[in-house]
């Protein structure tokens, strides 16, 4: 009979029930979308902030000391260097997944055919790597220097063309030397002389405008520096620093075992630096504060902003649902009066109405949940051009929200109506 | 008695005497209006607030000069072009090679307060120099000479004229600078100390500016400066300005989309609540029809109610929305939000519109119903 | 000429002939009762006479004007100008006071006049309760407000649908008393009821059965007073 009554209620009042279900669906979809976006926003913005370039710089240990103490003068034979064959190891550290991009740099002095001294830097442009994990990665300055304006020609593409003897020239030197895209220049260094095709001219708005960039192998050949790397720039997704991270950055050995575990297993910029130092022989990895700190700030603010907006929209959705449920329960005063008059106990009436509304809420909630996932994806794709990761934790959150809000919306109204005398209600008061 | 007077009397009676229902409706509209005004305020203010956060990336404009030296007067003239509330930091620098233990080190003279504002990401272990005779040294310099905050050190300067003796000056190290960049190889002192050390009056080599403005605005500012102060060249630091534009536009798009989604859903929510509230009164509409009320007249009465509710809810919502936006701003950005008075009428108009539309649908459908059926049955 | 004349009026819902070629005449100033068991077509008849519903076929002449083919809007005007309705469930607007409920009818008809509305309430003996809300009035009092509302615009016909259905005997008597008064003032009254006591008071009673006029009785010794069947 109970089920029959509920069934009748649905059948008779399908319009009203649809409306409640619709409102709950809207609320649930809003909650789902906002929660999904909120939880994912840190990752997304973190990705976006990668346009600022590397946040970690790896240099050989004691470069400065050796430079300073022995003043060898000739940078090319500076004692400290990183090994090129170790580069791949960066993608094997504990937080390898968070390393989104990196590029090695090797600097060498060279002369153009007319004798002008130029700085030549070897690097990766869009170096393709097949990682042992089966992942593929295109790393290099094409993404690490996203702010470069290509004024002529195009980015040097390492993958499409087999010819390594190509170069990109900064706008400053290109203007001084009259180099334009397509030109072939001769560059001579300590290791020998090569002919390079200039594929592109870039405007970096800084010191890099005076440098000629070539692939790593070519720079090593020019400078006679086979297998050597001067520095590595790493772009990693990091967690904003906290006190623990700051303490660890000073001296990891000052941490307790538990703190060390926490620190090592959190993507702080300092723990990633530490892990890079572990795999690259004789290296010092340090945070580029301009990028790392600012990232932390902006991530924190964005996340907080999204949390507050999410809370607002949740409150809005909750009140909206509450309101409608209350309105729909209030409307049934006559029915409740009648049920009381024919001898239904308060518990039975409450049970019946709650069961009805809960069925509606579940239907609405499930529909809304999937609609919300859709909304989240729309936001993800139109803002970040990537999908928002669906987190399982959203499901219980939304479920609890819907159930709680529906109960809060209906119980006070039911209690209020139960408090009325059946005679009053039936006499249309 | 005028007809209008009875109209008003009926509407006020309905609003005041059906208190529970009206509060439910008003609450729904207020929430909607609050979300509208709150989110729109945040959306409009986000670029400004977030822009300030992006200033953490440091200088986005530099002044250089073709002749090498920039005089402080030129800088003052140039800076006057920038609205003072947009100028976050201004740090002039002069670089000279000095010697520590007879080994060359690059020394920079700067205005410490300006540097702090223009490069907020500089992490100093110890204190910034505050008075003469104090020096801040880069991390690498500290490692090379094994210096710590509080230690004393001596710098020497070799003047260009060969016949002049080296100048020596004692400094106390107040802090060690950690930036992850080339600054770690420099030492920083005040202009006064630099003058004393070199014995020359110092002009600036370069000026770093942190200006809170979007890329196009910065472009305009730099052009204005270049034309008004020809002795120096203002250039944008592309890495910072371009990246800021990229990220900020994404952020703004995010907030916009979120605002649109939230608003759309909220408005539908308000709509369904209003629909429920009006649908409840089908019987009353039937009665009025039986009494000889024309459809237009019924629509007019119910819409009048709805619009009053809409206006009241819109007004309340604007107030709460502003309070909400303000608390978000205080919590997230520690700065107060800009009050946008035009948003109040917009919010009120929007809530009247949404409420009106939400009421219109059930009223229209109710007026189509046969009064006889409404009056007879449930 | 009769005030109201139904000629061959039928109302068909699907297969159901709620009214089947009915012919009725109501004279000006007449007090007519329409009786019949449930499902006999009383309510349909009431709705059609009250211009609340349209007939499927036939002619309905009110004041010599055929209203059968009029549009919904025109019917609304007719209800407003010529008909006063009294309902079994009273149908008062809950948030308006007694006098405001009366004024509501004035409002739709012409201009609301509080003094006139108060006079109308006085006529039904409710002058003292004008500022009360429906929920503060007894059933009988509510029905009297309903009567006051029905006659405020001096309609051609007052149409009462089970006016005593929700009332006890005492209130029933008061309402019938009021009808008598209205009748004496020359108002045309059509009372739809299944209560024989109420029907018998009228000058003439039409009994419907299965959508047709079953028979018609004329009250020879019309007094306008209710005769209670007392169980002795």
Which structural category do the helix and sheet elements of chain B fall into? alpha+beta
β-strand amount of chain B: 15-25%
- The assembly state of the depicted protein chains is heterotrimer
| Shape verdict of chain C | globular
CATH superfamily of chain C: P-loop containing nucleotide triphosphate hydrolases
Gyration radius over CA of chain C = 17 Å
What is the CA-CA span between the terminal residues of chain C?
46 Å
**Helical residue percent band of chain B:** 55-70%
**N-C termini distance of chain B:** 35 Å
What is the H-and-E element order of chain B?
HHEHEEHEEHEEEHEHEHHHHH
CATH architecture type of chain C = 3-Layer(aba) Sandwich
Rounded to an integer in angstroms, the radius of gyration calculated over CA atoms of chain B is 34 Å
**How many extended strands of chain C?**
10
Tally of contiguous helical segments of chain B: 12
According to CATH, the fold-level topology of chain C is Rossmann fold
What's the story with the biggest beta sheet of chain C?
6 strands, mixed
What's the arrangement of strands in the largest beta sheet of chain C? 6-7-8-3-9-10
Give a description of the structure.
- The complex is a heterotrimer of chains A (429), B (378) and C (232).
- In chain A, helix 2 runs parallel beside helix 12.
- Chain A has 2 domains: 170 residues, no CATH class; 233 residues, no CATH class.
- Chain A has 429 residues and is of the alpha+beta class.
- The longest helix of chain A has 42 residues.
- Chain B has 2 domains: 182 residues, no CATH class; 177 residues, no CATH class.
- The two termini of chain B are 35 Å apart.
- Helices cover 57% and strands 18% of the residues of chain B.
- Chain B has a 6-stranded mixed beta barrel with strand order 2-3-8-5-7-6.
- Chain B contains 12 helices and 10 strands.
- Chain B is α+β, with helices and mostly antiparallel strands and 378 residues long.
- In chain C, helix 3 crosses helix 4 and helix 4 crosses helix 5.
- The termini of chain C are far apart.
- The model of chain C has no long low-confidence stretch (mean pLDDT 86).
- In chain C, the strands form 2 sheets. Chain C has a 6-stranded mixed beta sheet, sandwiched between helices. In chain C, strands 2-1-4-5 form a 4-stranded antiparallel beta sheet, covered by helices on one side.
- Chain C has 7 helices and 10 strands.
- By secondary structure, chain C is α/β, with parallel strands linked by helices.
- Chain C has one domain: 3-Layer(aba) Sandwich (Rossmann fold).
């Amino acid at each position: 009979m109970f089920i029959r009554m509920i069934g009748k209620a649905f059948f008779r009042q399908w319009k009203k029930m649809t409306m409640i279900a619709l409102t709950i669906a809207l609320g649930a979809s809003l909650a789902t979308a906002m929660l999904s976006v909120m939880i994912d926003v840190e990752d997304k913005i973190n990705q976006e902030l990668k346009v600022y370039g590397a946040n970690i710089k790896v240099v050989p240990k004691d470069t400065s000391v050796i430079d300073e103490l022995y003043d060898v003068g000739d940078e090319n034979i500076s004692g400290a260097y990183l090994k090129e064959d170790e580069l791949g190891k960066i993608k094997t550290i504990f937080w390898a997944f968070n390393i989104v991009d990196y590029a090695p740099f090797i600097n060498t002095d060279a002369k153009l055919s007319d004798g002008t001294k130029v700085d030549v830097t070897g690097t990766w442009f869009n170096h393709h790597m097949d990682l042992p994990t089966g992942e593929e990665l295109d790393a290099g300055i094409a993404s690490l220097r996203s702010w470069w304006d290509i004024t002529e020609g195009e980015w040097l593409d390492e993958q499409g063309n087999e010819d390594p003897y190509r170069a990109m020239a900064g706008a400053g030197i290109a203007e001084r030397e009259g180099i334009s895209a397509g030109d072939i220049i001769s560059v001579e260094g300590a290791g020998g002389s090569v002919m390079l095709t200039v594929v592109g001219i870039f405007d970096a708005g800084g010191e890099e405008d005076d440098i000629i960039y070539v692939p790593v192998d070519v720079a090593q050949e020019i400078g006679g520096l086979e297998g050597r790397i001067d520095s590595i720039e790493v772009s990693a997704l990091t967690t904003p620093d906290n006190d623990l991270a700051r303490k660890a950055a000073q001296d990891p050995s000052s941490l307790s075992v538990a703190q060390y575990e926490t620190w090592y297993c959190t993507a702080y910029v300092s723990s990633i630096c530490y892990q890079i130092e572990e795999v690259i022989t004789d290296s010092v990895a340090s945070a580029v504060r301009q990028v790392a700190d600012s990232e932390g700030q902006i991530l924190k603010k964005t996340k907080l902003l999204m949390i507050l907006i999410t809370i607002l929209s949740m409150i809005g959705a909750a009140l909206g649902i509450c309101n409608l449920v209350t309105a729909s329960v209030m409307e049934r005063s006559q029915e409740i009066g009648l049920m009381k008059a024919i001898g239904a106990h308060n518990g039975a009436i409450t049970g019946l109405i709650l069961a009805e509304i809960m069925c509606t809420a579940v239907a609405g909630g499930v529909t809304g949940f999937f609609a919300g996932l859709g909304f989240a994806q729309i936001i993800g794709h139109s803002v970040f051009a990537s999908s928002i990761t669906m987190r399982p934790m959203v499901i219980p959150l939304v479920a609890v929200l819907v159930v709680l809000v529906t109960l809060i919306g209906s119980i006070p109204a039911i209690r209020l109506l139960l408090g009325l005398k059946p005679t009053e209600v039936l006499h249309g008061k | 008695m005028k007809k209008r007077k009875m109209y008003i009397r009926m509407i006020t009676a309905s609003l005041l005497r059906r208190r529970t229902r009206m509060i439910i409706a008003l609450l729904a509209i207020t929430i909607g209006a609050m979300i509208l005004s709150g989110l729109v305020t945040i959306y409009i203010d986000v670029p400004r607030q977030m822009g300030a956060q992006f200033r953490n990336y440091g200088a986005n404009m530099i002044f250089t000069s073709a002749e090498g030296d920039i005089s402080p007067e030129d800088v003052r003239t140039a800076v006057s072009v920038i609205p003072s509330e947009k100028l976050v930091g201004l740090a002039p620098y002069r670089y000279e090679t000095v010697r520590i233990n007879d080994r060359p080190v690059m020394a920079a003279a700067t205005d410490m307060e300006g540097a702090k504002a223009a490069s907020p990401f500089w992490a100093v272990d110890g204190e910034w120099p505050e008075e003469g005779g104090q020096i801040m040294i880069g991390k690498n310099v500290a490692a090379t000479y094994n210096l710590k905050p509080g230690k004393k050190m001596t710098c020497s300067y070799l003047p260009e004229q060969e016949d002049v003796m080296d100048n020596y000056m004692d400094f106390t190290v107040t802090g060690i600078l950690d930036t992850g960049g080339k600054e770690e190889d420099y030492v920083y002192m005040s202009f006064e100390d630099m003058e004393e050390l070199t014995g020359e009056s110092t002009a600036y080599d370069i000026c770093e500016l942190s200006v809170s403005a979007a890329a196009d605005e910065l472009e305009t500012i730099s052009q204005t400066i270049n034309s008004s102060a020809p002795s120096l060249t203002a250039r944008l630091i592309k890495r910072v300005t371009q990246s800021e534009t990229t990220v900020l536009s994404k952020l703004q798009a995010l907030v916009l989309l979120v605002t649109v989604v939230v608003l759309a859903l909220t408005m539908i929510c308000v709509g369904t609540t209003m629909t429920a509230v009006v649908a409840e009164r089908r019987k009353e509409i039937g009665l009025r029809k039986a009494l000889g009320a024309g459809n237009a007249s019924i629509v007019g009465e119910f819409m009048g109610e709805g619009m009053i509710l809409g206006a009241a809810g819109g007004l309340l919502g604007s107030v709460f929305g502003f309070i909400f936006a303000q608390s978000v701003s205080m919590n997230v950005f520690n700065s107060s939000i800009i009050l946008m008075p035009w948003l109040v009428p917009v919010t009120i108009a929007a809530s009247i519109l949404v409420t009106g539309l939400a009421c219109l649908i059930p009223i229209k459908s109710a007026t189509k119903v046969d009064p006889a059926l409404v009056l007879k049955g449930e | 000429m009769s005030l109201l004349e139904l000629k061959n009026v039928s109302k068909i819902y699907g297969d159901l002939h709620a009214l089947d070629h009915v012919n009725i005449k109501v004279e000006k100033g007449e007090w007519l009762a329409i009786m019949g068991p449930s499902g006999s077509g009383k309510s349909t008849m009431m709705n059609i006479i009250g211009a609340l519903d349209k007939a499927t076929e036939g002619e309905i002449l009110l004041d010599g004007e055929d209203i059968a083919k009029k549009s919904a809007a025109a019917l609304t005007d007719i209800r407003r100008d010529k008909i006063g309705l009294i309902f079994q469930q009273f149908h008062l607007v809950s948030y308006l006071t007694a006098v405001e409920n009366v004024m509501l009818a004035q409002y739709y008809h012409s201009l609301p006049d509080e003094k006139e509305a108060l006079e109308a309430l006085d006529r039904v003996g409710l002058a003292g309760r004008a500022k009360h809300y429906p929920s503060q009035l007894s059933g009988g009092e509510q029905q009297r407000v309903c009567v006051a509302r029905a006659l405020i615009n001096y309609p051609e016909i007052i149409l009462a649908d089970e006016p005593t259905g929700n009332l006890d005997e005492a209130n029933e008597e008061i309402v019938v008393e009021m009808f008598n008064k209205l009748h004496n003032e020359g108002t045309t009254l059509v009372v739809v009821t299944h209560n024989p006591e109420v029907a018998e008071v009228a000058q003439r009673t039409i009994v419907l059965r299965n959508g047709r006029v079953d028979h018609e009785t004329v009250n020879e010794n019309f007094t306008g007073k209710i005769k209670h069947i007392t169980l002795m």
